[in-house]
Specification:
The chain has 12 helices and 5 strands. By secondary structure, the protein is of the alpha/beta class.
């Protein structure tokens, strides 16, 4: 029995005076479904009701994206490595092109290998919360070969700073952290890992600018999730995975400073509602 003929059969049984519970039993459908059919047929008529049901069952053809839009999506992905949400934002604000997130992800799935949405270690563990700028600053280092990038990020505004150092010794760490905190200013909590560069000498500098120097638990990098995420962006969008030498220090610092301008004023952040760190900082000026 075809689905369309079921409507006609239900209506014919109703016209013959068969009770609705009996129609439900004979057709093997839910009583609410049959009641809805009979009510619709009563108001629309059997021919119109069946016609609308047929049209509703026809699968609508999916519209194809313009080839130029697909090329723009591929270009943005290759240049930035951004996710679908950021690409939607970029298309709307830079190219005045409105595309749905699902359409962008269809293109990305077709041409790129996307990471699984499943994430290991979802539970972040206990960590300080930030409700205003400079509540919590996370800091860490990135090994660039012959140089080390001392990085810090305000987890509320996502403002970041990078200072290049020559070693991971405590004295070098103290010098670089002093530069960072002089620029970012005082904070409530300055959070680091347990590396030697953030040892006693560095801790004394931190206490001059922060109320508390918090060190994360051993082997719990997810407690420093914001700075680890920033490191991934820094690698992908700026310094790459090359090995640098001390001769490259001034050139690399200039490159990083240029990237930080882009990072703060042009690059949207999902965690900030696709705003930039500069926009969020302006909204929370004292």
């Amino acid at each position: 029995m075809e689905n369309v003929s079921i409507y006609e059969l239900a209506w014919e049984l109703a016209r013959l005076g068969v009770s609705t519970p009996e129609i439900v039993r004979r057709l093997g459908k839910h009583r609410v479904t049959v009641y809805r059919w009979l009510k619709g047929i009563k108001y629309r008529g059997i021919k119109r009701f069946v016609k609308e049901k047929k049209e509703a069952k026809r699968k609508r053809k999916r519209r194809c994206l313009d080839t130029r839009v697909v090329l723009k999506i591929k270009k943005i992905r290759k240049q930035t490595g951004w996710c679908g949400e950021k690409i939607v934002w970029e298309l709307r604000h830079k190219y005045d092109v409105v595309v749905s997130k699902s359409s962008v992800y269809r293109v990305l799935n077709r041409y790129f290998k996307l990471r699984s949405k499943w994430k290991k270690n979802v539970a972040r563990g206990p960590q300080p919360k930030a409700v205003k700028p400079r509540d919590v600053i996370q800091a860490d280092t990135v090994d660039l070969g012959g140089l080390f990038a001392y990085t810090a990020i305000d987890i509320f505004t996502r403002e970041a700073l990078i200072v290049l150092g020559d070693t991971l010794e405590a004295k070098e760490g103290a010098k670089c952290v002093r530069k960072i905190l002089k620029t970012l200013g005082s904070c409530q909590i300055f959070q680091t890992d347990n590396g030697g560069e953030f040892g006693y000498e560095c801790s004394q500098i931190i206490k001059q600018f922060a109320l508390r120097h918090r060190k994360i638990h051993a082997r719990r990098k997810n407690e420093n999730a914001f700075i680890e995420s920033f490191h991934r962006s820094l690698r992908k969008e700026c310094v790459g995975w090359m090995k640098y030498t001390k001769k490259d220090k001034s050139r690399l610092q200039a490159l990083i400073n240029q990237y930080l301008i882009h990072y703060h004023t042009e690059r949207p952040h999902l965690g900030l509602g696709l705003k930039t760190p500069a926009e969020v900082a302006m909204l929370h000026l004292p």
